[in-house]
Amino acid sequence: MSTPSFKIVLLGEGRVGKTSILLRYVDNTYTDRRESTLQASYLEKKISIPSTSDELHNTNVDISNTNTANLYIWDTAGQERFHALGPIYYRDADGAILVYDITDLQSFDRVQMWTKELRKMVGTEDVISLIIVGNKVDLAKTKRSVKMEDAKNYADSVGAMYMETSAKSGLGVDEVFLKLTRRMMERRSIHRSNSRGLASAVGAIGGGKKLILTDKEEQKRKSKHSTSEGYCC
């Protein structure tokens, strides 16, 4: 069986930490001084998916018993001047990570705008899997501006998952991609199951018997139909 592949896009305002989250996940690196992304960048990563989330932290997990997937991750620019390019990058995406800075309320408001745009351009939660991520949780005790409860309630209202992360410490970053990949795999499995069911139904209809009427039976059927419907012959 071939390894499934998924396209993921990172969306959100500039300076919220999208690139830092991506590089922490792919390369396990972090720097405080990073240039803002211009237009978009792209990275790949193969992910191993344990059968339960608890196994993520278990060093004794037998990797041969896990599923794997290839992730193709697009990191998009958050600056307004690049906003019009968004649809180019999230077209055909299987999943989206919408990132905001928990110390910046405006960045959370913009995540809601991105969500509406995604739904408009791509479709419902059955088409693309979403996870909303509050980054910079390492600053939560002193600078939090967005309540976790408010963010979770919003995520629930749009059919998205929710997590908080710290790209600086790495807290929650791996779990974001694990949860999103699980959701994308589940959705693809459901679609395949539905497609097989539809194909079986079509096959059953196509394999049915044809009813062939003689000329007299056809004339009688038409006459009966016209009378019952009140039509004049």
Automatic annotation (TrEMBL):
Q: How does it sit in the membrane?
A: Lipid-anchor
Query: Which Pfam families does UniProt cross-reference here?
Result: Ras
Any one GO MF annotation of this record: GTP binding
Q: Which PROSITE patterns match?
A: RAB, RAS, RHO
Top-level taxon of origin:
Eukaryota
What Gene Ontology terms describe where this protein resides (cellular component)? Answer: endomembrane system
Hey, which family's this protein in? Belongs to the small GTPase superfamily. Rab family.
Q: Which InterPro entries match?
A: P-loop_NTPase, Small_GTP-bd, Small_GTPase
- In residue numbers, the region (Disordered) covers 214-233
For this entry, list what GO says about its biological process.
protein transport
Q: Which UniProt keywords apply?
A: GTP-binding, Lipoprotein, Membrane, Nucleotide-binding, Prenylation, Protein transport, Transport
Q: What is this protein identified as? A: Ras-related protein Rab-21
Q: Where in the cell is it found?
A: Endomembrane system
Q: Which Gene3D superfamilies match?
A: P-loop containing nucleotide triphosphate hydrolases
